[in-house]
Amino acid sequence: xxxxxxxxxxxxxxxxxxxxxxxxxxxxxxxxxxxxxxxxxxxxxxxxxxxxxxxxxxxxxxxxxxxxxxxxxxxxxxxxxxxxxxxxxxxxxxxxxxxxxxxxxxxxxxxxxxxxxxxxxxxxxxxxxxxxxxxxxxxxxxxxxxxxxxxxxxxxxxxxxxxxxxxxxxxxxxxxxxxxxxxxxxxxxxxxxxxxxxxxxxxxxxxxxxxxxxxxxxxxxxxxxxxxxxxxxxxxxxxxxxxxxxxxxxxxxxxxxxxxxxxxxxxxxxxxxxxxxxxxxxxxxxxxxxxxxxxxxxxxxxxxxxxxxxxxxxxxxxxxxxxxxxxxxxxxxxxxxxxxxxxxxxxxxxxxxxxxxxxxxxxxxxxxxxxxxxxxxxxxxxxxxxxxxxxxxxxxxxxxxxxxxxxxxxxxxxxxxxxxxxxxxxxxxxxxxxxxxxxxxxxxxxxxxxxxxxxxxxxxxxxxxxxxxxxxxx
Amino acid sequence: xxxxxxxxxxxxxxxxxxxxxxxxxxxxxxxxxxxxxxxxxxxxxxxxxxxxxxxxxxxxxxxxxxxxxxxxxxxxxxxxxxxxxxxxxxxxxxxxxxxxxxxxxxxxxxxxxxxxxxxxxxxxxxxxxxxxxxxxxxxxxxxxxxxxxxxxxxxxxxxxxxxxxxxxxxxxxxxxxxxxxxxxxxxxxxxxxxxxxxxxxxxxxxxxxxxxxxxxxxxxxxxxxxxxxxxxxxxxxxxxxxxxxxxxxxxxxxxxxxxxxxxxxxxxxxxxxxxxxxxxxxxxxxxxxxxxxxxxxxxxxxxxxxxxxxxxxxxxxxxxxxxxxxxxxxxxxxxxxxxxxxxxxxxxxxxxxxxxxxxxxxxxxxxxxxxxxxxxxxxxxxxxxxxxxxxxxxxxxxxxxxxxxxxxxxxxxxxxxxxxxxxxxxxxxxxxxxxxxxxxxxxxxxxxxxxxxxxxxxxxxxxxxxxxxxxxxx
Amino acid sequence: xxxxxxxxxxxxxxxxxxxxxxxxxxxxxxxxxxxxxxxxxxxxxxxxxxxxxxxxxxxxxxxxxxxxxxxxxxxxxxxxxxxxxxxxxxxxxxxxxxxxxxxxxxxxxxxxxxxxxxxxxxxxxxxxxxxxxxxxxxxxxxxxxxxxxxxxxxxxxxxxxxxxxxxxxxxxxxxxxxxxxxxxxxxxxxxxxxxxxxxxxxxxxxxxxxxxxxxxxxxxxxxxxxxxxxxxxxxxxxxxxxxxxxxxxxxxxxxxxxxxxxxxxxxxxxxxxxxxxxxxxxxxxxxxxxxxxxxxxxxxxxxxxxxxxxxxxxxxxxxxxxxxxxxxxxxxxxxxxxxxxxxxxxxxxxxxxxxxxxxxxxxxxxxxxxxxxxxxxxxxxxxxxxxxxxxxxxxxxxxxxxxxxxxxxxxxxxxxxxxxxxxxxxxxxxxxxxxxxxxxxxxxxxxxxxxxxxxxxxxxxxxxxxxxxxxxxx
Lengths: 474, 474, 474
Hints:
Order of helices and strands of chain A: HHEHHHEEHHHHHHHHHHHH
Distance between the termini of chain A: 52 Å
Mean pLDDT of chain A: 91
Shape of chain A: globular
Number of strands of chain A: 3
Oligomer: homotrimer
Structural class of chain A: mainly alpha
Low-confidence stretches of chain A: 455-474
Radius of gyration of chain A: 23 Å
């Protein structure tokens, strides 16, 4: 009885204590942990000139910074403007979409530097994490997993819940990534499995557990407006344009980065055409739906996350994009409504269509491409470099690699679903300040929202003493 | 009589069959053609490490990817966000502006890789097109020609017509480019002739043939809104900021790229000041017009397309920008209304002012700069490198080069006008689903447009069963 | 009496003569001065291939262009989209925010190339300024100082006043920079002192002198709207994402750029969390304020401007960001209203909170970090390279350097305040076309503003002859 009352008490979306506490405590924890564990690596440390001499590096341009910084900045734009603006499409949740995305990404990248550092970048000599450009790209990648999860929950959770989702999501990601990339020695430079599959199922499972049967009380706000749809296109286009950088950011220097960028570029172009086709085909008089254009056009990039650095061939990339545009748009038309009605999964942004299905497809494509790789196509050196068949993996064959790639997908799925279930139950605790069912998708709950432009008082009134909200801003 | 009825039947903008068919068939054709013809070049192929050894290349950083990828991404942003958002300025055609731009660019870049490949990148050894970073930059350039043409037609054509415009525009571009750059051995790294002059006259000629005498029936929608003007500024600024990358993206490694970026940067800055000056001078009380600021400020970049990589000197660049800002703004004030009234050319975005006139001027500036080049200014090697006076062109003098540059302009004009005339007649066939005169500039025709934010039903109604469009999105 | 009438005559915001005259005359002056003084440097000149041979440079990739161009483009985006869109937050001053920012930046960068060139890049051999990529980055930096000053004045000044502000601001900046960087040999690669402290106090002093006691007559417009707040987030995010490029753009090749980027990345992330915390803590029900999120999240980048290239350690960066988020948000809550009420400083964008306080803090942090530098942390070579202890500074110790760093801050403050006072008095002359007190923050004064989307005439009227403003645009 007591317990019943605890679980079902009325929602109180006041986060005045909880949000500041969470932000302060976690940021202070970051500072302490960074103080103990994190230092510069040999390429960002002032000892670089000595390191250069020792390793016979002839020029500063060989610093990894110059290989990867342009890609890093593109990835950074995808995380903050891409994901952020993609989530501004709701007519009255644009602040929350771009703002909370900003908050959790800023927290997540610090936490990811630590968690990924412990697993991948620990210097055995002194037990410290040495960071450089590749680490901050990986931290951005890690954050992407949590932002994808946010997409499924957009408008239905409080910022505190999102911080908790990130707090648990980052370590789950780091462990999953460690198992897939290091234990199984799987290749996944653009993260079809590691980022997209994991992130999407993590978010969908949480959404399933947080199911709100009365969510249609907020139906009036769960839709886009004319301008919010244009804002969302900013996010779409920056994601679409920079996805070649995403998939090539941490692949091998030289041909690896070059090929990954080209393959992704092609797959994305192909997705656009099939998305327009299916969207038009599905509506009366062939009218296009902005939701499809904003999302399904990106599916080709997701599905190239694993195979982009392989010799999948240009037409292979086009085929992947072709299929993904179809599958993803079809998902928005059929699967999302089905999932909501019959499976009790409310997926605000349709991450199942944009990340889950294309991610799984990308993993399968990657496994097949790896399994069919051969020295005649790659050359001996090329094969060794591309799949990193070195050291204790020197004897691994492409066919075996294909099997391990498939195993990697299972790990990503398992971590997403099991992790999401656990975190979902934690997020159901009625202490996180989530909105009531009739207040979802509404910025008024967590933001000071300005009155609309339309309500500018006429000029006659300017002499009266306004005590409104704008007074403070002057 | 039958024919009469065929040509004049009422417009039916239903594209439910035609758009999906066009998208599917053409995308499948791309896949087949890529399968037969397109492979990676030696810098994006897994054999790169062997190639490196053969050519004595000491470092991966020498891969062309690292010279050009940052510029490529900037160009990519110009194509999709730059052109796309520049065309969102109409108050109710923002979806069409940014969305159809997205569609035809995604198709066009694939088609351009093929067409340009056949003309410029065919490997004689195996008859295949080998692609790398420079090819995808060139594909983006090629697409720009068609997007410029779209600017003249914005709001008056269907997406199917735009696909047809692109289908023909890309090969026209590729042939024109082949004649100008290879047959005439003209230098045009930023495409004043090849891209801007061609694209603008191609679009204007089509617009002339598709002239709508009763277009003022849509006059209520043929204008901007406050927010749509701010959206358009996103496009303007990304074009403006990244134009130095556009003009330097495929110019020579080293000083060529360096100088092209600096010259373009200066010309653009100069254009801004004269645009503001003329815009203010022309209006009552000196009020500025957003149309001028959004467009004429870019004219300096167009006009530096040919000469940017030459030793035009910093002050030469400023002079070019100075003139272009004036000419272009003047065009918006005087020439566009004149062309519409007396020449029956309806030019929605004013591409005549932004691309045609500055493009022609840029070609002339380029010809003069080339003709006056000398070894005292360039140095012997510099002159040879800049104008590529090698092989069978080793004996060409700067003066001769100037003449060929001028000939290049004529080729671009001819292709634009003749090509536009032919394609214009094809687009007049009443089967492409274009809107009626009173439905132009209206997203409602081809898009599911959300109801406005202002019409959010009051909270009282949320329990009633809404069967509206938002229900599906939940 | 006559004088009294001169100073107090009614405002007339007609700039039809003054703005075009200023733009034309100053642009022509630029052309002449560039003609006399500005040439390409050895890396952007066609003699590069000879220069390469002389200096034994083996590859074009060693051209400074490839080290700095990606960072340059990021900085360029910050100047035009970052600052521009950050200033669109007012509900009816978005045109002025982004448009006048565009104008003065385009003028300022030309003027800065000259002024900075005379002080820093004069070739003693021929008395000319030789420009390359580093110069145009520095010109963008110089412009940033004036744009910060604009932030304090947003909505209250005419474009002519802004041009005057820039005309004087650039030389003040160049002299101040010369004294700080060259005379005092201070390190300030990201400009905490040189750019932010100077720019902010320059603007605040001008605002103090231009104090408008009756500004509350415009109170109805001095606030944001829902969409204008989302537009401003575009500016915020591009500033936030690209700040690592800002602070690393001109620091040393290799580890210097690498470390500066990482440190700035971390400080910015940390600022976000404390900004959200304080913003939420300060409002009823924990509601977040967009003004804080748009601005205070950036404070960490400002404060890392000096120390980013030093070995401040990753946790040191986090601590700086932590403090700045708190101080800056606190400034918006308490100090800005205090300054307006008691100190008669009206600071529209709150530059005191975003630039002045974090800038001063950044200078102090830089001085301390420099003073505590040691060979054990930097290595001998690292210390010499980082602080440039070469030539006549070879004997300077870190402790002395710390003292000079602190002296640099005083110079920046002095130039900002004294320069601002002088320019403020010039701007009070009643000839510059500034708006009256009840017309501030209103685009109607200087722009042709389209009627709102909401006022689209119903379709019934389309046959009547409209003679409205849109007619010209068709």
